[in-house]
């Protein structure tokens, strides 16, 4: 069993899991999401533990970093998450729309939102009073017009992509100029801090950037899969909303080639609360079927595994480990024998320790730890992760039949 910083490999390559010279960019960075991991980590692992056409699963999908790397490298992908905003972001990353299809809708939306010739009025937003605590009145009005126009998009796929881009600008369009933690903790800007932001220009620029990044990601995927079309690329992934244990237990036995993921760290991040503004804005009847909207916010927040906001519950640590135990058992069932499960894990010095307990629970589920590497994380990421100074990359091999 390796306990060094060497990357697990069949070819003996050695590198630093920290990848200090790299950062997420392009499509990986188009929408902020808490505690995301560096794309180089799943990119490195996928290439070494699977073959083209294999099925990669991320049971804690988040913003889809593993998914995008899986498709780029010619693998199939299934992502699971309880957070519908996470899956909205991921769908936008894995849809690979053409710039032409986006520009056609962008032109229509800009026309709808023209202050002189556009729609004179739009229906009131059900969360207007709450949203006006975050936005200048004119910014709120412009965002409401943009959202109304997006919802008229005839293509469901393009509509969801545009909704994800809309979600991506909501923090910058707000008057809360401090970091995301303030939004997460529902700290609205003071009255004197409310300033106008040009929402339409923010949105148009974000769609144009997204179109370029999506095209670049698709072209990168073509380098690894001969004859790849956008339609085929879209068909290579599936996303499931729900708990990972239930979903994994619905998979056929030994049907997954590799699991590559980063489980929530105990008491460190609030994934649902961090998307508070998106849940508020997307609280529309048309989107309720996808559990998008603030009406689902409290339910999703309160049941989030390991959430920072639940850390003061007396049973929170025990509940977290019990959940992780069930996750390992479900993973062992669904993974092929001798297949790899790679986890990026971390813990805060101000919370109860979990990493060694995770290793023990994995062993009880018949996973053998074959590599453990440490990595440092950047200071700006650490600030938003409750004093997490480093992480471990744990690589297990399933030995359920041994």
Description:
- With 402 residues, this protein is of the alpha/beta class.
- It has helices at residues 40-49, 65-72, 84-93, 99-112, 128-131, 137-150, 156-173, 180-184, 199-222, 230-235, 244-250, 276-281, 297-302, 316-334, 355-364, 379-383, and strands at 55-58, 76-81, 237-241, 256-261, 335-346, 367-376, 390-398.
- A seven-stranded mixed beta sheet has the order 3-2-1-4-5-7-6, with helices on both faces.
- Helix 4 (99-112) runs antiparallel to helix 9 (199-222).
- The two termini are 18 Å apart.
Quick description:
By secondary structure, the chain is an alpha/beta fold.
The sequence of SSEs as H and E is HEHEHHHHHHHHEHEHHHEHEHE
Helix amount, in percent?
40-55%
Largest sheet: 7 strands, mixed
Largest beta sheet: strand ordering: 3-2-1-4-5-7-6
Give the count of helical stretches.
Answer: 16
Tell me, rounded to a whole number, the average pLDDT: 90
Poorly predicted parts: 1-7, 9-14
Terminal residue distance: 18 Å
Number of strands: 7
Question: How would you summarize the topology of this molecule?
Answer:
Blueprint lengths: L39 H10 L5 E4 L6 H8 L3 E6 L2 H10 L5 H14 L15 H4 L5 H14 L5 H18 L6 H5 L14 H24 L7 H6 L1 E5 L2 H7 L5 E6 L14 H6 L15 H6 L13 H19 E12 L8 H10 L2 E10 L2 H5 L6 E9 L4
Parallel strand pairs: 1-2, 1-4, 2-3, 4-5
Antiparallel strand pairs: 5-7, 6-7
């Amino acid at each position: 069993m390796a306990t060094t910083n060497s990357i697990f490999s069949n070819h003996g390559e050695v590198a630093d899991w920290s990848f200090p010279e790299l950062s997420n960019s392009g499509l990986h960075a188009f929408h902020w999401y808490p505690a995301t991991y560096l794309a180089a980590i799943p990119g490195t692992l996928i290439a070494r533990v699977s073959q083209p056409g294999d099925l990669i699963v991320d049971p804690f999908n988040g913003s889809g970093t593993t998914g995008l790397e899986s498709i780029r490298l010619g693998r199939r992908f299934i992502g699971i998450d309880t957070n519908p905003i996470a899956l909205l972001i991921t769908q936008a990353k894995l849809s690979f729309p053409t710039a032409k299809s986006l520009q056609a809708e962008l032109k229509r939306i800009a026309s709808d939102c023209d202050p002189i010739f556009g729609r004179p009025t739009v229906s009131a937003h059900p969360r207007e009073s709450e949203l006006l605590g975050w936005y200048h009145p004119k910014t709120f009005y412009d965002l409401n017009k943009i959202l109304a126009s997006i919802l008229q998009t005839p293509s469901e796929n393009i509509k969801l992509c545009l909704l994800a881009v809309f979600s991506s600008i909501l923090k910058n369009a707000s008057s809360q100029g401090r970091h995301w933690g303030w939004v997460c903790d529902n700290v609205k800007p003071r009255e004197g801090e409310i300033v106008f932001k040009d929402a339409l220009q923010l949105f148009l620029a974000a769609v144009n950037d997204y179109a370029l990044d999506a095209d670049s990601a698709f072209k990168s995927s073509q380098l690894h899969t001969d004859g790849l079309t956008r339609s085929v690329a879209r068909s290579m992934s599936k996303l499931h909303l729900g708990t990972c244990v239930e979903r994994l237990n619905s998979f056929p036995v030994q049907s997954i080639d590799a699991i590559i993921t980063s489980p929530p760290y105990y008491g460190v991040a609030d994934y649902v609360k961090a998307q508070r503004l998106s849940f508020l804005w997307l609280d529309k009847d048309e989107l309720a079927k996808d559990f998008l909207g603030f009406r689902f916010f409290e339910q999703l927040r309160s049941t989030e595994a390991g959430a920072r906001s639940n850390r003061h519950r007396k049973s929170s640590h025990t509940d977290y480990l019990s959940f992780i135990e069930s996750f390992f058992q479900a993973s062992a069932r669904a993974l092929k024998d001798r297949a790899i499960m790679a986890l990026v894990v971390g813990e805060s010095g101000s919370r109860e320790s979990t990493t060694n307990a995770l290793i023990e629970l994995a062993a009880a589920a018949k996973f053998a730890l074959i590599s453990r590497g440490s990595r440092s994380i950047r200071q700006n990421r650490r600030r938003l992760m409750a004093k997490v100074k480093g992480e471990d990359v744990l690589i297990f091999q399933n030995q359920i039949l041994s």
